[in-house]
Amino acid sequence: MKRKRFASKFKLNPFIDPNPKRLKAITKANDNISPIDEWTDLKNWVEDDESVPQASVMLHVHEAIKVSRTFFHVLLSPDHWLSSTHLHAITQLLNKDIDAHSMTLISPYVAHKILKKDIANDTHWGGDKFLKKQEWTSFERVLIPLNAENKHWVLAEVLFRCRLVRVYDSMKTSRTPYYANELCVRLPYLVRAMGLCPDD
């Protein structure tokens, strides 16, 4: 008996599944974009030498990010390490589809700023306009990608209301507690600076 086929519940984005046949099927009804042509143009541009004119392009996610060919070379090479710029672009894209009332994924640049703050001087936190404008007060969970010593990525999940931090490390080492602790010791200062728990 032949197995009955059901239509997929998921619609793939043509830009993340650049198979010509799939692209045509997905975008047939859309005359405003041509992902096949755009993918081909991008692929040709990435393969050009760095000396070829237009050494960089603007990557439009939530905001415009200027990136070079190297940015895409790294993405297309499985043995290359993703930089903060890559993770920043990824967080911007993911945040488009995240329910803003439950959780948010912050940029690694924000995490870097938090980790660089001096915990000995509390006044620096309260006067930081950049941190104050981060709208986290309504989120149940905040996901923070940590660039550990520019060598390894660790994800921290912060549950402000429960006062809980979970750390996800794909390569758990003796340094994992250190990465988590660097964030945890700064969270009370961050919470007060953002006015999340003014009484704490």
Topology:
Blueprint lengths: L19 H8 L7 H13 L8 E5 L3 E5 H8 L7 H11 L8 E3 L2 H9 L5 H5 L2 H4 L8 E8 L3 E8 L4 E5 L7 H9 L2 H8 L6
Parallel strand pairs: 3-4
Antiparallel strand pairs: 1-2, 4-5, 5-6
Protein name: Ubiquitin-like protease family profile domain-containing protein
Family: Belongs to the peptidase C48 family.
InterPro entries: Papain-like_cys_pep_sf, Peptidase_C48_C
Structure, described:
- By secondary structure, the chain is of the alpha+beta class.
- It has a domain at 83-194: Ubiquitin-related (TATA-Binding Protein, 2-Layer Sandwich), CATH 3.30.310.
- The protein contains nine helices and six strands; from the N terminus they run H-H-E-E-H-H-E-H-H-H-E-E-E-H-H.
- The strands form two sheets. The protein has a four-stranded mixed β-sheet with strand order 3-4-5-6. A two-stranded antiparallel ribbon has the order 1-2.
- The relative contact order is 0.08.
- The model is unreliable at 7-16 (pLDDT under 50).
Tell me briefly what this model is.
Keywords: Hydrolase, Protease. This protein is 38% helix and 17% strand.
Query: What's the CATH H-level superfamily name of the domain at 83-194?
Result: Ubiquitin-related
State which percent range the strand residues make up. Answer: 15-25%
Task: Assign an overall shape.
Answer: globular
Low-confidence stretches: 7-16
- What's the N-to-C terminus distance? 65 Å
The level 1 CATH classification of the domain at 83-194 is Alpha Beta
Main beta-sheet annotation: 4 strands, mixed
Number of strands: 6
The CATH architecture of the domain at 83-194 can be given as: 2-Layer Sandwich
Order of helices and strands: HHEEHHEHHHEEEHH
Helix vs. strand class: alpha+beta
Strand order of the largest sheet: 3-4-5-6
Rg measurement, Å = 21 Å
Mean of pLDDT: 69
How many individual helices? 9
